[in-house]
Amino acid sequence: MRNFINLKDIPAKDLRKILNDAKKRKNNRKAFSTLDTDKDQPLKGKLIIQMYEKQSSRTRLSFYIAINQLGANSITVKASELHLGKGGESLADTAKILSTYGDGFLLRTDSDKKIEDFSKHLKIPIVNLLSPNSHPCQVLSDVFTVEEIKKKSISKLNICWIGDCNNVLNSLIAASVKFKFNLNIGCPKNYIPPKFVMDWVKKNKRKINIFNNPQKAAKDADVIFSDKVFSLNDKGDKAKKIKDFKNYRINSKLMKVTRPNSIFLHCLPRGNEVSEDVFLGKKSKVWQQALNRVHVQKSILLYSFGKLR
Ligand code: CP
Ligand code: NVA
Hints:
Elements: H1 12-27, E1 47-52, H2 58-69, E2 73-78, H3 91-101, E3 104-108, H4 112-121, E4 126-128, H5 136-150, E5 158-162, H6 167-178, E6 182-186, H7 195-203, E7 209-211, H8 214-218, E8 223-226, H9 238-244, H10 252-255, E9 263-266, H11 276-279, H12 286-304
Parallel strand pairs: 1-2, 1-3, 3-4, 5-6, 5-8, 6-7, 8-9
The structure holds phosphoric acid mono(formamide)ester and norvaline (NVA).
């Protein structure tokens, strides 16, 4: 059993194995309906418990489908309805109960520490469904989408992120180290990635390029990534933050400085950081990106259950 909490803690060869498995499984399902199980039903008989302490549309639904396609069953529990928290049951006891009834635990929370604490007390694998510092399932799936569309290794591409230095970007930075791709970041001076992230990049002898000018960051990019300026865990002055990013909006003028076959990706939900014509335009692959979450998350679950072929 293995946890899937942060991309930085997972060996590159395991991440590649997950992507290879996802590709095979996706190819093998061409004529299947949404809830048809994969032929081998590798998680038949398992119960996977999902818990969301914050909103989710894509993660919740894509994991529901992924779990069913693997032959397992899932239940989503609401944090507000558990004894943990309001009812005063300890995290350790809750973890014991989850391990007694369930075979896997998937958690979206506003505390990285809570995920670490759960991982210490659980006897079943835990998967991070988004935390303040990390969105590993999203980003590994996005690497899959990039390689699927570009038909080449991401290590041969120029990847650019325009926007806030948030959980998704932290995971993208970790991916840039694991998969060795060039990463340009375009963000205002006060919003650069946190020191612990930059230190980790340095320790791993890689470099990321930070620009306080979106045009320079996006030049010759194969892929432009973005995300909401104000994330779920953000506190503070939303209007000010959005104003600080006003020159970093992705529009057709910015897309012109990218490579001719460039694509636009966004994890959703979106805000004002991208113009409607780019988001709904030909370069945008956001729906394919959302659907691929199902395929990659299946292989993430198999990795966690020690069942990757
Ligand atoms: N991209 C993503 O994780 O979306 P949700 O917040 O809807 O799950
Ligand atoms: N950075 C965003 C991602 C949402 C999927 C957030 O944390 O709200």
